[in-house]
Structures are given as C-alpha cells and as structure tokens.
Q: What sequence folds into this?
C-alpha cells in the first residue's frame, strides 16, 4: 500500500517549529505517534522493498533507519529539544557506527530531500576517499555525471565543503583536484513539500534512491578497499602486536 503523509502531519511539524518545547510536544504526542511517526515507518518499509534488490546491505528494520526526532543538545548552544523535520538514513551493514556511503531522506512541510553519498566522513575515510578519487576520478565521474542530467531525477551535487587548497600529500595539479579537495561526495534532489502529501511519495523517493545505488556502492567499495589495505600486516612488524585504531569523529548525518 502506498504511503504518504496527511495534512495533520504537516500541521504538527509546523506547530513544532513554532513551539519547540517539551510541554507542547508531550501534549500532542499521540498526534506525533499516529500521524507522523507511523506513516514515516511505513514509508521506510515501502522504500526498503524497492531498495532490497539493488542495495540489500542497506536494508534494516524501519525503526533502525528512521532518525530520532530528539536533538542532541549536549554540545550545542541551541537547546531546542526537537528537530522540525523527519529523516531516515540507510547506512551500509557494518558501517552503522561510522560514516560510509548511504541513502538519506528528509521530510518537512517545506521540502522533501532525497540524497545519497558520503557526508562528513571520519578522518580515515576522508583520506581513503581522497586518495581513491585521485586515482579513480574518471570512474567516479562516469557514475556521477548521468545522475546530474535533468531527466534522471533532478539531482545536484551535494555541497562538497571543499578545501581552498589541495590537502597535504596531493599534487597541486592533480586532475581530480575538485574531488580531492572535497569533504563530501554525493548528490541530492530537492522536491516541493507538497510531495509529502502525494500518494506516489514512496515511488518518487524510491525511484531516485535506486538510481543512486551504483554511486553509493562505488563510494563504499573505495572505503572498504582502504580498510582492507590498512588491515594488511606491515612488513617487519611483530606478529604479536597490533596497532590500535585511530580515534574517529562522531557520525554526523547528512546532506
């Protein structure tokens, strides 16, 4: 059965944006559970069915894919307790606690965002991807460029949050310069908020995410290749010693 949201759900999110307080939310928790959370979980299950043939490593129970509406305010000056949008993150199996490449959906009364790629990777993944881009930029562009065509879903590149100069260890004239300087890789499509009320919401989202599957697979392949390379024993190293993994930054999602 096709899943979409009701006007009541969008009214709730608009109200939450104006009244981002626990008392207001708790007084309307039943509305959140029934009109907002339940349809989101059903939508994720619908998209899971569409993704399973192409990206089975990204399919998990809906409640593990849907992101919490509660904001983490521990290290933020902004103490508002709730997000004012809904979000889902389809991470790859075994990469749930790291960054990795994945699929993302964000829904608000004003906009529906469909995205895929790697966003704010940890330090090791960042270096791995930059090295991979330097060596395989033509392959990456061959997968990326078709997604950017207008007929392919209205995708645009994500903000690369690129360095102004080439990072240390890379040549200044590297032909993959803009890809190496990037900190994020992937695409997003921005749809009107009214799409969330449409009966074909799931179809529109799933169609775009399926088209991104090769890009996500390519990025994760590069990361896993780097992991395998680092796991190789170092020549001359004592077999009884292991090098502890480097500390990584918290996973942050998304586009």
A:
């Amino acid at each position: 059965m096709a899943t979409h949201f009701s006007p009541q759900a969008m009214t709730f999110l608009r109200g939450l944006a104006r009244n981002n307080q626990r008392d207001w939310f708790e007084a309307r928790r039943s509305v959140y559970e029934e009109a907002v959370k339940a349809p989101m979980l059903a939508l994720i299950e619908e998209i899971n069915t569409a993704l399973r043939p192409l990206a089975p490593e990204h399919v998990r129970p809906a409640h593990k894919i849907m992101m919490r509406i509660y904001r983490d305010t521990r290290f933020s000056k902004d103490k508002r307790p709730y997000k004012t949008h809904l979000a889902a993150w389809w991470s790859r199996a075994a990469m749930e606690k790291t960054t990795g490449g994945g699929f993302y959906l964000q829904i608000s009364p004003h906009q529906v965002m469909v995205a895929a790629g790697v966003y704010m990777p940890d330090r090791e993944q960042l270096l791995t991807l930059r090295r991979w881009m330097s060596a395989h930029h033509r392959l990456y562009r061959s997968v990326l460029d078709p997604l950017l065509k207008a007929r392919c879903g209205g995708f645009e590149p994500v903000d690369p949050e690129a360095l102004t100069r080439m990072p240390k260890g890379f040549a200044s004239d590297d032909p993959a310069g803009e890809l190496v300087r990037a900190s994020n890789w992937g695409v997003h499509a921005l749809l009107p908020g009214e799409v969330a009320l449409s009966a074909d919401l799931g179809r529109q989202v799933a169609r775009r995410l399926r088209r991104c599957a090769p890009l996500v697979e390519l990025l994760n392949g590069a990361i896993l290749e780097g992991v395998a390379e680092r796991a190789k024993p170092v020549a001359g190293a004592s077999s009884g010693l292991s090098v502890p993994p480097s500390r990584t930054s918290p996973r942050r999602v998304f586009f």
Remarks:
- The beta strands are 86-90, 102-107, 111-118, 156-157, 185-192.
